[in-house]
Amino acid sequence: MSANRKGIFIAFEGIDGSGKSTQIRLLADYLRKMEVAFYTTMEPTDSPIGSMIHQIMTGRMHADPKVIAALFTADRLDHLLNEVNGIARRIDEGTTVIMDRYYLSSYAYQSVDLPLEWLIHANEPAKEIMRPDVNIFIDIEPELAMERISGNRFQKELFEEQSRLERVRRNYLDVFDRLQGEEQVVVIDGNRSQEAVAEDIRSTVMKYL
Ligand code: ADP
Ligand code: TYD
């Protein structure tokens, strides 16, 4: 990569347990070997706004779905713009940024409760600041994702969780249809070994570097 080029911006997407963190770690190992300057980060963040989201997700705080969607949006804008470690500036300075979730997560998850148009509108400011060069969607059968993450939770809870993940996966696929031509999305089959998935991701990323 030439010294004065902007970094590339890669967003990983997928249902919970699809393997995003694992694949981001493997991609980081590879980029390190290739001597690419990169930075990995995730949403929700660990900022004060992100902490509110974590409190809601763990049931310690209750909020209306519209408030939750607005918090994800605010957390995202702060992630882009905050003066200490905002990623917009890092990308402008030439660092490649790899993000675990971005606004397509809001489209897929929050559209369980809210209209997609509302969410697209709410995320317009973030999109104007930074649109991913590529969104890598790790597609996995919800049942397999559940097997990977279930641990020893109760049967009923698992059943509810699997139908939620099925809904979110469908939402992602509907969103990709709706946004054809607007968002760069690469779908990777996540129902395979870590190494097979990682190889596809590496060859995708190499096209953008
Ligand atoms: P996410 O970040 O998308 O929630 P993780 O990377 O944390 O997903 O993966 C969820 C679980 O599945 C972890 O225990 C991880 O070790 C395991 N895992 C990830 N990828 C694979 C794979 N390709 N095959 C089998 N297990 C996997
Ligand atoms: P996390 O524990 O990071 O899960 P994962 O490892 O699967 O990414 O929690 C993130 C959760 O927040 C996940 O269930 C998806 C959800 N989420 C939204 O609902 N909307 C959003 O905009 C984002 C970024 C995440």
What structural keywords apply?
209 residues, alpha/beta, 10 helices, 5 strands, binds adenosine-5'-diphosphate, Thymidylate_kinase, P-loop_NTPase
In short:
Phosphorylation of dTMP to form dTDP in both de novo and salvage pathways of dTTP synthesis. Belongs to the thymidylate kinase family. The chain contains ten helices and five strands, in the order E-H-E-H-H-H-E-H-H-H-E-H-H-E-H.
What does it look like?
There is one protein chain. By secondary structure, the chain is of the alpha/beta class. The protein has a single domain (9-206), classed as P-loop containing nucleotide triphosphate hydrolases (Rossmann fold, 3-Layer(aba) Sandwich). The protein contains ten helices and five strands, in the order βαβαααβαααβααβα. The protein has helices spanning 20-33, 48-57, 65-81, 87-92, 103-110, 116-122, 124-129, 142-149, 155-178, 194-208; strands spanning 9-13, 38-42, 96-100, 134-139, 185-189. A five-stranded parallel beta sheet has the order 2-3-1-4-5. The longest helix is centred in the C-terminal third of the chain and has 24 residues, at 155-178. The radius of gyration is 17 Å and the shape is globular. The N and C termini lie close together (7 Å). 33% of the residues are buried. Thymidine-5'-diphosphate (TYD) is lined by residues 16, 20-21, 43-44, 72, 100-101, 105-106, 109-110. This is Thymidylate kinase. It catalyses: dTMP + ATP = dTDP + ADP. Phosphorylation of dTMP to form dTDP in both de novo and salvage pathways of dTTP synthesis.
